[in-house]
């Protein structure tokens, strides 16, 4: 008699047939019970000591990406209501690689900046104007693992621009909200 084995657990991002899920525009399925919702942020989240929430994914600053609206209740206002002093969010779909670079530079600028908005603006201005040579020097100063370093090198090989992040699509989506 062969031993009984149970089927492997479903992948964490893939709901099984009995679970509720929401299909996102990308086709990915999200399980609502595993997501932080705006309702939970307003009802349960308390962040009185939080000075910054950074939402660096796509369209995190929008209230409804499918309709034109004058509503202002979205993730940034939810986190402000919960007590965060500042929120950085994006207004459209963003490039993963460029966003990672922007966020690293933003957090490097933050300690010496007068505000979150000034730090974000400095990081955006740096991205807009950095040359390929200066970018390579900057990356060399980062403590990257081998896989990350290879990803950066691959990206640099594919880019032929003297200023690889000059296009606003790489940095302009992000805004700072708060006080």
Structure notes:
- The protein is mainly alpha-helical and 179 residues long.
- It is 36% helix and 9% strand.
- The strands form two sheets. It has a three-stranded mixed beta sheet, sandwiched between helices.
- The chain is globular, with a radius of gyration of 20 Å.
- It starts with 21 loop residues before the first strand and ends with a strand.
What order do the SSEs take from the amino end to the carboxyl end, as H and E? EEHEHEHHHHE
What class would the helix/strand composition place it in? mainly alpha
How much helix, percentage-wise, in residues?
25-40%
N-to-C CA distance: 69 Å
Q: Unreliable segments (pLDDT under 50, ≥5 consecutive)? A: 1-10
The overall pLDDT average reads: 84
How many helical stretches?
A: 6
In percent terms, what proportion of residues is strand? 5-15%
User: What is the β-strand count?
Assistant: 5
Rg, please?
A: 20 Å
| Physical arrangement of strands within the biggest beta sheet | 3-4-5
Question: Tags for this entry?
Answer:
three-stranded mixed β-sheet, disordered N terminus, single chain, 36% helix, mainly alpha, two-stranded antiparallel ribbon, 179 residues, 5 strands
Short description:
By secondary structure, the protein is mainly alpha-helical. The protein contains 6 helices and 5 strands, in the order ββαβαβααααβ.
